[in-house]
TrEMBL record:
Keywords: Membrane, Transmembrane, Transmembrane helix. The chain crosses the membrane at residues 6-25. It comes from the Bacteria. This is Uncharacterized protein. The keyword Transmembrane helix applies.
Length: 87
C-alpha cells in the first residue's frame, strides 16, 4: 500500500514539473515571437502594455481591418523600469 501511495505522489510531482516546464517554454516562445515586427497593415498605437506575469513592457500594434492586436516586446523592459517611470 505504501508503494502505491509513493508512486501516486511521485507521478503528481512529475506532472507538476512537466506542466511548469511546458508553461515556461510556451511563455518564452511567445515573448520571442512578440519581438518580431508585426505584419503588413498593423498600425502602431500609443498604448504600452505591461505583462502582469513577466513584467515586460510591450508596444501595442492594431490592425483596423481585422481588429487583431500584436504586442511587440520593447527592449530592456522590466517592471523595475516601469516603477522608476511612475515615480
Amino acid at each position: 500500500m505504501l508503494k502505491l501511495i509513493a508512486t501516486y505522489y511521485a507521478f503528481d510531482i512529475l506532472l507538476i514539473v512537466v506542466a511548469i516546464l511546458f508553461t515556461w517554454w510556451r511563455r518564452k516562445k511567445r515573448l520571442r515571437s512578440n519581438a518580431q515586427e508585426p505584419s503588413e497593415g498593423f498600425i502602431k498605437t500609443d498604448e504600452i502594455s505591461v505583462d502582469p506575469t513577466t513584467g515586460i513592457k510591450q508596444q501595442v500594434w492594431f490592425d483596423p481591418h481585422t481588429g487583431e492586436r500584436h504586442y511587440k516586446t520593447l527592449e530592456a523592459s522590466r517592471t523595475e523600469d516601469v516603477k522608476q517611470d511612475n515615480s
